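Q: Hi! First time asking for a complex rather than a single chain. Here are the components, and I think there are three in total. Is that enough to go on?
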Amino acid sequence: MSADTGINSPGRAQVGLKTARTDKWWLAPLRIGVILGFFVVYATIRIFMNKWYWVNDYHYLTPLYSPCINEGCSPGSSHLGTWFPKFPVFIPYSIITFAVLAGFRGTCYYYRKAGYRSLFFAPAACAVPEPHKSYTGERKFPLIALNLHRYFFYGALVFGILNVYDGVLAFHGKDGGFGFGLGTLIIWINLVMLWLYTLSCHACRHIVGGRLKNFSKHPLRYRYWTFVSKLNPKHGTFAMASLFTVILTDFYIMALSAGWFSDLRFFN
Amino acid sequence: MTYKGKFRVWRGDAEGGDLQDYEVEVNEGEVVLDVIHRLQATQAPDMAVRWNCKAGKCGSCSAEINGMPKLMCMCRMNTFDEDEVVTVTPMRTFPVIRDLVTDVSYNYTKAREVKAFTPPADLKPGEYRMQQVDVERSQEFRKCIECFLCQNTCHVIRDHEENKESFSGPRFLMRIAELDMHPLDAADRQHQAQDDHGLGFCNITKCCTEVCPEHIKITDNALIPMKERVADRKYDPIVWLGNKIRRRA
Amino acid sequence: MTELERHTYDVVVIGAGGAGLRAAIEAREQGKRTAIVCKSLFGKAHTVMAEGGCAAAMGNANSNDNWQVHYRDTMRGGKFLNNWRMAELHAQEAPDRVWELETYGALFDRTPDGRISQRNFGGHSYPRLAHVGDRTGLELIRTLQQKIVSLQQEDFEATGDYEANLKVYAECTVTELLKDGDAISGAFGYWRESGRFILFDAPAVILATGGVGKSFKVTSNSWEYTGDGHALAMRAGATLINMEFIQFHPTGMVWPPSVKGILVTESVRGDGGVLKNSEGKRFMFEYVPDVFRAQYAETEEEADRWYKDADNNRRPPELLPRDEVARAINSEVKAGRGTPHGGVFLDVSSRLPAEEIKRRLPSMHHQFKELADVDITAEPMEVGPTCHYVMGGVEVEPDTASSVVPGLFAAGEVAGGMHGSNRLGGNSLSDLLVFGRRAGMGAALYVDSLAERPKIAEADIDAAAADALAPFELEGGENPYTIHQELQQSMNDLVGIIRKEEEMEQALGRLSEFRGRIAKMTVEGHRQFNPGWHLALDLRNMLTVSECVAKAALLRQESRGGHTRDDFPGMNAEWRKKLLVCGLNADGSVNVDEKQQIPMREDLLELFEVDELKKYLTEEELPA
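A: Yes, that's all I need. Here is the structure of the assembled complex.
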């Protein structure tokens, strides 16, 4: 920050301290920053692997690769069929999935807060000066595109349904009939978290009823809105929790697929 | 339970000033404002401080305590250790007048620029009918006591003086949301919010919500819903296309 | 010549609480250039502290309600000492004033059919208080503030200047009213921020400065309540009435010490809260006075039934008028049945589910949680009486709010008469609106009637400036904070809830001693935002007002409403006919004269049963 703007602007109290905060205000943004950084690195590596996303014995498909729709996909994993020829090696099989889901999270109001605070220090914490010379917010390209969050929400809904389909398929035993194991359980925990995250979304809250001026004329939509409004305050918690469960699910399936260890089976 | 508390209070005016150290008696059950008053009565009779109700209802005694924007009357002394130095400074987003008193006229200027409630033309006094569920959202925002702590903590203006011109701050964007959600208000608030009051500056980092002494969910309930309403009107390509086609037809 | 900035207006309103803002709105709508001058920031006035609601007989909650019932309740609450014309106008016009607020954008809580919801309150026969949770005062002040903004926006459209016809001078204190002959010619004051002087040249001044609570130690009032308007009016030659009547709100916080006095809204009791002593007994049943015996429940069972079925049961005695409840609490504490911190218990936690308490009393829940670390959904509150409201004030003409000084008007708490000897909860907010508007109209009419604007004499300006700077002149005198604390202590101890002749005489002795000390006190520092100086100037007003209270209280030899004499415990119908009128002598001392009340108009008298009137009126006043 330059010497004569922000809290150093002429006329304001010249306190001399950048911040008088005595608590560990840097801890929360640091922690979130590390988590986000880890996820970005992990996800980048994972999507370029183009392998270890499918466990054929139990029909486990990692959500990072669902749906797999090119001819390079492992046999059995492309249950929506193959729509494209085999992707060249430098294109991730999950490019569409990833674009939509990363887009959903990237434009999400919670992740925006987390990212601005942890990665851009704008601001890192309340009443702590940010290091930037100027600030224009979300008014200009590219950040103005964040207003498209609702479309990513629609997309996330579609992928959420696909994931449920994957989850049902994951009740698959080695002998071809019904079965379930720890992997199935992890997949379903992840599904619950993903849906809580998706439904508690601010755009969702707006679409189901928030946009109305008079709730009393739309009792059903008011009920939807009330339901989403109950979830919404925990949107941040669901966002981080689902991030963990996605990584966990993906890692577990990767490990099974790579044969690092085998699934704990409860039934068949 | 009485002890000598260590205080550092910023004394000065627009020309300059510094943090001055005081040792002052602190009694059980007191808040920071009590201690500041004791300083006034015993050691610094000309220490300027703005206050009024002493019960967290008027929003006058806003300041920064250990760097966090707070109401001095709502900051209990038992939240500090007895040997902890408590630093009290004026709000650092507004020009200082003297000591802990700042010039908050920015807020009144912005308040005046928000188009007033526009009542429906056909209703006379006494004929207003509104359902409780329809007024509740706006009622939450009307709990605002205008302490301006949200304005003070918002980095858009705290860290960038030049944005004061085009950004009205969380308090008044919330006021626009309040009017937009008022069941009988008849004005267009969405364009106003984005074009005249700088809603687009907000990057929802939520410090306004964090410091609100009334615990109003400014970001989740006012600013983000308002951003979504603006998106409806300005940024949704399907809505845009729909409007275009409708206008053609 | 004194250096100062000068402004010319048609109407100057002093005070930006509910009454001041409503008056300014009216004056501006009548086409008058209007200034609002207030000691605090715009929108911080003490009106925000009003919690329960605004009484208006709209009949939304109970269709039996109408202005006559409201009128009767108001007169009973004030023990028939009220100015009946004011009570009549108030009861008749309050509903219109509330509905008007909705057109300004107010959002009251609603009934199921979408109208304004109304709640029960002490002394009101029906649910009557329009409210927003328990932050009604804030809603009112914000609504009026936003209406002012909307008028300024209209002016901006027309002239390009927001402040062309209506301007707020915030953090500005008026120290003197100026006159040309008998009539008001302007007001003199200073900017708190810079200490610089400011002069308003205006033929009409509306006082809306609120009350006098800061003369007492335990008070719900903020620092602004230093009786400025009362003292300004007296110095300008106007008279005050009913100054002996001070309302002690029965339920102020008693712990922790820093918030002692801060109000606990009556809605806690209206919504089911009960008062208990340290023995766990609901003691209010013991304290129902004879005049109210018929309207109040005698058993806990009946009282509890009332919350569900108000038509067929009598009210719980916790909802007696405020003076009765305050005295009862005082007696319990004196009898040794008080709480550890010298109050009684107010319990709502055992009466309503936690969620319901949070919904109905959000700001009380918040206030106790944040200020006292007490969760009112889980434990009882400790409460005791706190100085809350002065019924007395400037003697005004009911229809126009005009004082005896031409050009000087008063509305709201600073005006006297409306509430008689005791104000009902909820009648304050409606009073502000009804008489704020009337003062605005009265001032506008007065300005129109003038053939010539009164002029300000330069010598008066110099004198006002010299008075304001006097505390800087002396060295080695006392600190104003010390004198203020002693004044508050004296008033609290000697002219408090229960009064005795010798104590009040003692108080008058101390007050004259304070007069000498105040003349010699010293203020350190310079004029720029100097709280010591501000207090020194306010202290003079508090002294004048305290003298009025003590002298009038000493003269009135009966107990009535907000005036309880240990040595004269009963109500006396002869005294009901008399008003005590305070004025200022040439030497600055206070004189008090008796004045006969104007008898109530016959049609209003007929609204009461003769049996009831017998409790208040003398034999010859009763209708034939």
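A: Chain B has two domains: 3-102, 105-239. Let me know if you'd like any chain examined more closely.
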